[in-house]
């Protein structure tokens, strides 16, 4: 660890959360998230509204992050921001703001890949949390992505499996919508599932080659199931909501765990970390705890505040890039599709 204090101000604006954080030498001083409520009434994120809300939120969120960290602008060492992947209009707000701030303060600018950040969130300095040892497998599960990544070093990552259609978060959210639940439905399914019987209803698992995933057929299966059952009994969903949610969650977690087991077997690496919004799910968290006991895996489960989108994870990537002096220049642009 360096002698000097390296303060990173991080900005995240890839989807519908406007977030800013300040980290000092990899430790969080503040982590502020403004979640945009405006999308709820539309049942999903409306890109145009998201970018407008980012413009409204970004200045107060950054002010709050600096104030909570008790750091003056002049003590910030570098600005880190999410370059992509994400919604273009949303990314442009954070990118432009980060560039201007870095220029105004005359400090380095650091661009961050959002998906790498979900993985490197495990390296935030945190009491009571062990950091993963390289190499390890990371499963990033969110509303936009579903990937298994082999991580051999901080910035040496290889995607070894990913979804060929919908992301797992979409499978949760779309299933929830079919059940008449508001957006985002993932956490609600999780809550109802806690009191339901996961073996009540059976949904098919997709057959996909290798370590890839598919969730579009699953969503259709849920739709047909609900249509069929409500034809016989219009109150079917209401009467069976907990069991339906438990059965949906059980199947989705089964799909994720099947591929993870295959990845562990094929790579011989049994250190596993999860990240992204769906890693907040109680089913996947329990499945990994069981895998530790049953198969001797070492599993890294993030704290709840680092599962869904946040700027602390952008800050930890920023810190490690700062140590390498891996800075961006002012011609850097937002990238809605940004592979690593
Ligand atoms: O990482 P994230 O905040 O944003 C993206 O980058 O997509 O992930 C959001 C996704 C949503 O689909 C949301 O329903 C899902 O994560 N999610 C959950 C849970 N908490 C959030 N899904 C299942 N169970 C949860 N507890
Ligand atoms: Zn995310």
Task: Provide structural commentary.
- The chain starts with 6 loop residues before the first strand and ends in a 17-residue tail after the last helix.
- The strands form two sheets. It has a five-stranded mixed beta sheet with strand order 3-2-1-4-5, sandwiched between helices. The protein has a five-stranded mixed beta sheet with strand order 8-7-6-9-10, sandwiched between helices.
- The protein has helices at about 45-70, 90-105, 115-120, 170-180, 185-195, 215-230, 235-265, 280-295, 310-325; strands spanning about 5-10, 15-25, 25-35, 80-85, 110-115, 135-140, 145-155, 155-160, 270-275, 300.
- It folds into two domains: about 5-120 and about 305-325, Nucleotidyltransferase, domain 5, CATH 3.30.420.40; about 130-300, 2-Layer Sandwich (Nucleotidyltransferase, domain 5), CATH 3.30.420.
- The radius of gyration is 20 Å and the shape is globular.
- It is α/β, with parallel strands linked by helices.
- 5'-O-[(R)-(carboxyoxy)(hydroxy)phosphoryl]adenosine binds next to helix 4 and helix 5.
Looking at this protein, list some descriptive labels.
Nucleotidyltransferase, domain 5; alpha/beta; 19% strand; 10 strands; 42% helix; binds zinc ion; binds 5'-O-[(R)-(carboxyoxy)(hydroxy)phosphoryl]adenosine; 340 residues
């Amino acid at each position: 660890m360096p002698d000097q204090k390296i303060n990173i101000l991080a900005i995240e604006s890839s989807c519908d959360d406007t977030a800013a954080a300040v980290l000092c030498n990899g430790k969080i001083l503040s982590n502020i998230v403004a979640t945009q409520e405006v999308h709820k009434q539309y049942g999903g994120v409306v890109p145009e509204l998201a970018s407008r809300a980012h413009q409204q939120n970004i200045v107060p969120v950054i002010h709050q992050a600096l104030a909570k960290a008790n750091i003056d602008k002049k003590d910030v060492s570098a600005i880190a921001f999410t370059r992509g992947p994400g919604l273009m209009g949303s990314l442009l707000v954070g990118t432009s703001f980060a560039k201007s701030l870095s220029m105004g303060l005359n400090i380095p600018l650091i661009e961050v890949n959002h998906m790498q950040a979900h993985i490197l969130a495990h390296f935030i300095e945190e009491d009571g949390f062990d950091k993963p040892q390289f190499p390890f497998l990371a499963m990033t599960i969110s509303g936009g992505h579903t990937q298994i990544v082999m991580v051999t070093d901080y910035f040496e990552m290889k995607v070894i499996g990913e979804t060929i259609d919908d992301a797992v978060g979409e499978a949760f959210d779309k299933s929830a919508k079919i059940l008449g639940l508001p957006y985002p439905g993932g956490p609600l399914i999780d809550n109802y599932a806690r009191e339901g019987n996961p073996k009540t209803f059976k949904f098919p698992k997709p057959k996909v080659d290798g370590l890839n995933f598919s969730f579009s057929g699953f969503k259709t299966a849920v739709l047909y199931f609900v249509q069929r059952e409500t034809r016989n009994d219009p109150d079917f969903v209401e009467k069976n909501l907990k069991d339906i949610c438990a059965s949906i969650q059980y199947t989705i977690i089964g799909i994720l765990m099947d591929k993870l087991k295959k990845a562990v077997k094929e790579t011989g690496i049994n250190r596993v970390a999860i990240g992204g919004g769906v890693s907040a799910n109680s089913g996947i968290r329990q499945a990994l705890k069981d895998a530790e006991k049953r198969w001797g895996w070492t599993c890294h489960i993030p704290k709840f505040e680092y599962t869904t989108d946040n700027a602390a994870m952008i800050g930890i990537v920023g810190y490690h890039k700062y140590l390498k002096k891996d800075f961006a220049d002012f011609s850097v642009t937002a990238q809605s599709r940004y592979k690593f």
